[in-house]
Amino acid sequence: MLEGEIDTRGGGMTDGEDDRASARQARRKVPLRLVRRTLSKAWSGNIFSEAAEAAFWQTLSLPPLLLGLLGSVGFLGDWFGEAVVTEVHDQIIGFSETVFSGSVVNQIIEPTVDDILTTGKGEIVSVGFLISLWAGSSAMSSFVDAITVAHDQYGVRNEVWQRIFALLLYLASLVLLVIGLPIIAIGPNLLPEFFPSDWQPVIASWVGALYYPTVGVLLVLALATLYKVALPRKLPWHRGLPGAGLAMVIFLLSSVGLRFYISWITTTGYTYGALATPIAFLLFTFFIGLAIVAGAYFNSAIQELWPARMTRRQRRKWRRLEMVRANERLRAGEGDSASLWQRTTMPLRRQRRPDEDSQAEAGTAATSDSDQADQADHSDQADHSDQADHSDQADHGNHGEGRQRERSGEPDRSAGGRPSPQRRPPARQDRTGYSPPGGRFS
Predict the structure, then answer these.
(1) pLDDT tens for residues 183-215?
(2) Can you list the positions of beta strands (E) in 277-329?
(3) DSSP assignment of 133-145, as one string?
(4) Domain count within the chain
């Protein structure tokens, strides 16, 4: 003990301090493990091809969707009023100027938007919605497939049902976008008007400051919901928040990078500026897909390192399975009790030893041999008795026939039809016991 105290005072570390130091080192390594696991899973899952597939379908679905939405606004202009149509026009042009070059906006986008918003076109709405429905559902199916692959749940859901599920999910997102986009676009300007005139400047400043953070929070919540509903074996909803936050960060960084790229490429000339617009749009959709898929792999890595508890639905399912297993065990117990009753009511038999079994087998073999010998003796005796009976009967018959023939004077033909030799009378003997050769005295 004294040596331990001396070592501790001299600067040595006790076991408790060693454990705390190792725990601190382990906590420091946790973020590195998480990042390493996320990158390895994303690379093995081929994240770039999944993001490119989703970007292609997004690019194919967005233009007809926008045309269909704008065409429907032209039909509904009488309901909402000219002010709403003008506000939508200004918002679209303002957003296009932040993404595309000025020449592209003035020569292509603005005339098209003016034509669609002023007069409603049924063919544009119908064809645009059909194309966007097909391409948009394919884009949503790509996201659902990527999320299930990231969590190693691909193939759990039926392929046909997964396609139908992606279509229904896309329709639900369309409904939310149709309702939410006008509110997001027009809300900041209309919201202060619902308050008194003295409060309107304060409300307008608050709305201007909180507009983009509110939109970002809504997007994070929508992504977390997508991560939950896309999985066949669902995780708790809060488990999708880390991946949704990472996706938002990647999206913001990519948007800033694209903005610098477009601002730089447009200064080189008209030709490169015109080419930069579609390239930037393709890169924009690619980074959207990359952000969503990367968030899914991040959630999967967190789930592997720190598994989540079961949801309420999973707990209910687990209880049902436990009830089924308990019933099966009860049934098996009833069968075991019946067999136990049979075993207890049957007469007890002592188990034989191996030497006793061999002796019993030898005894059974000997008894079987003796039984066979007895049966053979009985059969031989029966055969001899039968033969003797037959021979006696034959002799009696022959003697009877011979006597009858002797009386009648007929020859005996018992042996093959030949006459039997006549018997001679026995030779007479004298009192001395001598008998002559001829059998008679002369």
Answers:
(1) 776 667 777 777 778 887 888 888 778 887 888
(2) none
(3) HHHHHHHHHHHHH
(4) 1
